[in-house]
Specification:
With 184 residues, the chain is α+β, with helices and mostly antiparallel strands. The chain has two helices and eight strands. A four-stranded antiparallel beta sheet has the order 1-2-3-6, with no helix packed on it.
């Protein structure tokens, strides 16, 4: 009788172990698949601090493929339209000294434009006649003075998308998104 009751206890223990294993296996098997995570697009950057200067994108415009000489600052000197097979992009940024000392003249500037494929587009002095008279790119920045405006015009490929401008203070750099998308 004692051996019979031991046998029953062993059988019950084995059944309980199998039930526990089945429940645990069922929980593991029925564990829901994690939902796929959609890639999150980074938010555009329209303001960045670099080397004690706060840069802000004020305006970015697609000027098309012709800069009309009559719309230049000095039509008597320009005398003809400036034409490209691609696009002219006008970019206006503001620069404000947020440091405690002057940022010397010539130590900050807008740099190149970059597109989504990391192609680089450089500012050209031939477009200077179409930038505003009050253009103050690279001038001295005094601490906590009002921001100054800087406008450059770039010649950019028609197929370029997701443009961003490099801003530079001495050897430090940052980027501002232009918010302009072109049809490919």
């Amino acid at each position: 009788m004692v051996s019979e009751s031991k046998s029953i206890v062993v059988v019950i223990a084995i059944v309980v172990i199998f039930v526990i294993i089945a429940v645990v296996a069922g929980i593991i098997i029925m564990k829901p698949e994690p939902e796929p995570v959609e890639p999150v697009e980074p938010e555009p950057v329209y303001e960045v601090d670099v080397g004690g200067v706060r840069f802000r994108l004020e305006k970015a415009r697609d000027l098309g493929d012709i800069l009309r000489f009559l719309e230049s600052k000095n039509p008597k000197r320009t005398k003809e339209d400036l034409i490209t097979t691609e696009r002219f992009i006008e970019v206006t940024i503001s620069a404000e000294n947020i440091a405690k000392d002057n940022i010397a003249s010539g130590t900050w500037k807008p740099g190149r434009l970059f597109d989504s494929k990391d192609r680089r587009f450089y500012y050209s002095t031939k477009t200077d006649y179409w930038t505003p008279e009050e253009n103050k790119c690279g001038e001295i920045l005094k601490p906590k003075f009002a921001p100054i405006m800087c406008t450059k015009i770039y010649e950019v490929s028609k197929i370029s998308t997701d443009l961003r401008i490099e801003v530079i203070v001495k050897k430090e750099q940052g980027f501002l998104d232009l918010g302009i998308l072109f049809d490919e």
